[in-house]
């Protein structure tokens, strides 16, 4: 049985969206990929860095399979009404089948197909560095002890696709307060897992694994910044970055690092995955801004996955009220 999330504000508009098929079909997938010219890999990588091979063979070698949708709802989860989005929610089946997770593949439509070997439980996250109380947490304990809430946020990928999803999790600042930063802490460095045995993309040695990201301490302490332990009313499915991920909705999607194993308070701006790989395309700050084009495309508009609806891109992805003062 599937238990696809039914949003509390489910409206006519989102109900009329036709979800993608819940079944993976190799032939249709390959036809779609070839038609879209996507056989080499994801748009974030410039052509010169697109050296991924092997994903096609892996996909062809596996049987067609059904998308997992039978997630257990989190009881008593409350939506925080302070965060509303004036666009329809993205259908869960759409978000589950269109992911950026380069540890597995650069083909967004193929991530969910390659993710079964990934075991996100038990999942530990270390909070350390320039803090008085370093500690390693078990994610299931965090889910029980942190102020868990649901927040509907926009998500804007630097590639111009966008979605609206209900994350659940807690503000990162709660975790940072518990850690009690020392005076020299100015940045927060995030590190994702490293395990090429389950993540075939990590066999690509020209990429700077593990995936890393960073924020200033002020950005990390902003009330918008959350650590998501779930989405659509349940825990995170593998492809969305289980066991725990960062969500910074005013920044391009690549800042929202998935499957975090370490959060460190540091004194210097940390190196990050995309900035290390292609520094002239992906800066450290990476706030959504329609007036600053990507070197290879405009950022003026964005396309909602699932519906294909096009909207003008907003500065700070529409979250200026919360974050503009950080950059004044
Ligand atoms: N570890 C890791 N985190 C990551 C990525 C990745 O490849 N690896 N991709 C990023 C990008 S580019 C985007 S747009 C979002 C996509 O999140 P979603 O697949 O849950 O929609 O995850 C971000 N976090
Ligand atoms: Mo992205």
From TrEMBL:
InterPro entries: OxRdtase_Mopterin-bd_dom, OxRdtase_Mopterin-bd_sf, TAT_signal, TAT_signal_bac_arc
Keyword terms: Oxidoreductase
Keyword Cell cycle belongs to the record: no
Any one GO MF annotation of this record: oxidoreductase activity
Entries under PROSITE patterns matching the protein: TAT
Gene3D superfamilies: Oxidoreductase, molybdopterin-binding domain
EC numbers on record: 1.8.-.-
Ranges that cross the membrane: none
Start and end residues of each Oxidoreductase molybdopterin-binding domain: 118-274
Pfam families the UniProt entry points to: Oxidored_molyb
Protein name: Sulfoxide reductase, catalytic subunit
């Amino acid at each position: 049985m599937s238990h696809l999330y039914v949003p509390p504000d489910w409206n006519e508009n989102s109900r009329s969206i036709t979800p993608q098929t819940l079944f993976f079909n190799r032939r249709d997938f390959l036809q779609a990929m070839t038609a879209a010219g996507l056989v080499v890999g994801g748009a974030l990588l410039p052509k010169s860095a697109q050296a991924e091979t092997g994903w096609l063979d892996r996909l062809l070698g596996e049987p067609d399979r059904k998308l997992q949708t039978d997630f257990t709802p989190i009881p008593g989860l409350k939506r925080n009404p302070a965060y509303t989005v004036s666009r329809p929610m993205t259908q869960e089946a759409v978000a589950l089948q269109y992911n950026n997770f380069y540890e597995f593949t650069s083909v967004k439509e193929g991530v969910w197909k390659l993710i079964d070997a990934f075991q996100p439980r038990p999942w530990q996250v270390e909070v350390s560095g320039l803090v008085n109380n370093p500690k390693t947490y078990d994610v299931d304990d965090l889910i029980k002890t942190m102020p868990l809430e649901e927040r509907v946020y926009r998500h804007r990928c630097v590639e111009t696709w966008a979605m609206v999803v209900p994350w659940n999790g807690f503000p990162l600042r709660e975790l940072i307060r518990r850690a009690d930063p020392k005076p020299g802490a100015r940045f927060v460095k995030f590190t994702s897992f490293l395990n090429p045995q389950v993540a075939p993309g990590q066999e690509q040695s020209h990429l700077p694994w593990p995936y890393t990201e960073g924020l200033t301490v002020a950005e990390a302490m902003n009330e918008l910044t959350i650590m998501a332990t779930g989405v659509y009313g349940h825990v995170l499915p593998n492809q969305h970055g289980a066991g725990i991920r960062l969500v910074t909705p005013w920044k391009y999607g690549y800042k929202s690092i998935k499957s975090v194993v370490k959060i460190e308070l540091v004194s210097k701006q940390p190196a990050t995955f995309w900035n290390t790989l292609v520094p002239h395309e992906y800066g450290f700050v990476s706030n959504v801004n329609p007036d600053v084009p990507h070197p290879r495309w405009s950022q003026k508009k964005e396309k909602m996955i699932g519906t294909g609806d096009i909207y003008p891109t907003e500065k700070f992805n529409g979250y200026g009220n919360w974050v503009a003062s950080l950059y004044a």
